[in-house]
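Practice problem: predict the structure.
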Amino acid sequence: MQNLADDPKVWTGSDYEFDFIAQNVFYPIYDVIAGDILKRTQSMQGRLIDIGCGGGHLGMALMEKTGHQGYFVDINETALKIARKRAGERGLAGRCFFSRQDVHAMDFPDGFADLIVSRGSYHFWQDLEKALLEIYRILAPRGRTYIGGGMGNSELEAAIREKMQGLQPGWPENIRRRTQSIPTAKLENMLTRQGISHEIVENPEQGRWIILAKEPDHP
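Answer:
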């Protein structure tokens, strides 16, 4: 496994810690989650947006299985710097685009993306409803989202929990204290009130994921 954090010129401090953990602890989950996404959405071509992309692991795992063009969005320039470098290392640079954007107000046109994914970011969004409406705006007719969090399966979750508690005692409770708690019932009510077709996948194996669907006749 090629690891940017092995390069002392790149691994320079806490700004890069998120990618060190993604690459060295969470790495096995992205291929599993990508498989789940494609099984649910059947999206194999078009424009893919990875929101809160970090180092690009999930979006690139999807691109390696499909013909998508990948648009990688994060509020953190450090994340985008790492993702650009990783795209080159994985032979994907020719299909990748990177931009610093806020999920609450993105500069993509209406109906732009066929598939929008985000893992581990939505708990940090300041206004979840506003963010989901913005995501729905840029979703193409017949497009799908896969937004949420999970470890792929229970076996991977157990292995990652053990590693993370060695690195960060108290994980994941310490993360939960820093993020907003969003009950599933609240999500359901919010999306129903907005008239957005959706499905919420929630189980111990996969975690919780929001699948928004835009039908061809819906604005």
